[in-house]
Amino acid sequence: MSTARAHIEVLPRSVQLALALGLLALLLFPLVGSDFYLQMVTRMMIMAIFAMSLDLLQGVTGLVSLGHAAFFGVAGYALAWFTPSDMPVSLWWSLPLAIAAAGLLALLIGCFVVRTRGIYFIMVTMAFAQMLFYLFFDNRLLGGSDGLFIQFRPDASILGWLPFDLEVRTTFYYFTLTLQVAVYVLLRRLLWSPFGRALAGIRINGQRMRALGFGTHGYQLAAFTLAGALAGLAGYLLGAQTGHVTPEMMGFHMSAHALMMLILGGMGNFAGAMIGAFAFEYLLHLFQDLSNKHWQSLMGGFIVLVVLAAPRGLLGLLGLLGQRSAGPQQSQGPGHG
């Protein structure tokens, strides 16, 4: 079994079972959860989409970005600009346009950054994101440091018929869950496609891929653009949920949080990105309750412990425990996710 196949494409049965139970729990949660926790889990699902988009870039393609939040924030701002002050905007055109805006920005930035490597790629992506951050932070026409408010959630009406109302928290919850599952399925299918296999090959040995005739920069640019568009989907949803967008959505800290989600859950596997996002958001609330001033130190210490004890993240630890409980014979025949 190749390293790429073992690290990305194969999910042990224990992980598949955990994902199925997790999906079942998410489907049933609105029946028992209060409004506060419903909002909290909705945010977790949004951040899971954001983390998966970064995982496509970092875990699959091997491009470590510290500027991914720029696309996340731009889509949130796009929703704020599209929404009138006295009525909701249509979901059916505002969502695709916000995603397209984030994807177009990723395409423009990607044209410059995919020709760099290693530490230079990291620094250039962070530089672009910081430029956007200060552009929005210092410009009152763009909302300034206070950001912009979104008075209404998008309207899903079609010719006067309303199939679902996103102003209802439970409906917005299931809408977000549907998109999270759709993004996961899309990215898992992408891994098995020729495009996904080319990205994995570029991550493992880009020089060999170029020698085989693959245009690696084109593949990397396509992955960068797709990852930016999916980050835009998450930013749009967060803007719709909170009703407020600020420059912090596209700042360095937001990109760093997404990176920590991947480290926590396990890079190179979209299931790990989802687990990492849920774990990170839960720990964020837990540590803030324990110490409002020093929660970053607690979070940093926990991340260090996870890296030392489980280098492949919580997902790798879960898979290892499942293999040990299944015994040596069963652990040799994992299923496919």
Automatic annotation (TrEMBL):
Membrane-crossing residue ranges in chain numbering: 17-38, 59-79, 91-112, 119-137, 172-191, 212-238, 258-280, 301-321
Domain of life: Bacteria
Keywords: Cell membrane, Membrane, Transmembrane, Transmembrane helix
Molecular function (Gene Ontology), one example: branched-chain amino acid transmembrane transporter activity
Pfam families xref list: BPD_transp_2
Keyword Zinc-finger: no
GO annotations of cellular component type: plasma membrane
Predominant cellular place of this UniProt entry's protein: membrane
Membrane topology field: Multi-pass membrane protein
UniProt subcellular location: Cell membrane
InterPro entries: ABC_transp_permease, LivM-like
Name of the featured protein: Inner-membrane translocator
Lineage of the species this protein comes from: Bacteria, Pseudomonadati, Pseudomonadota, Betaproteobacteria, Burkholderiales
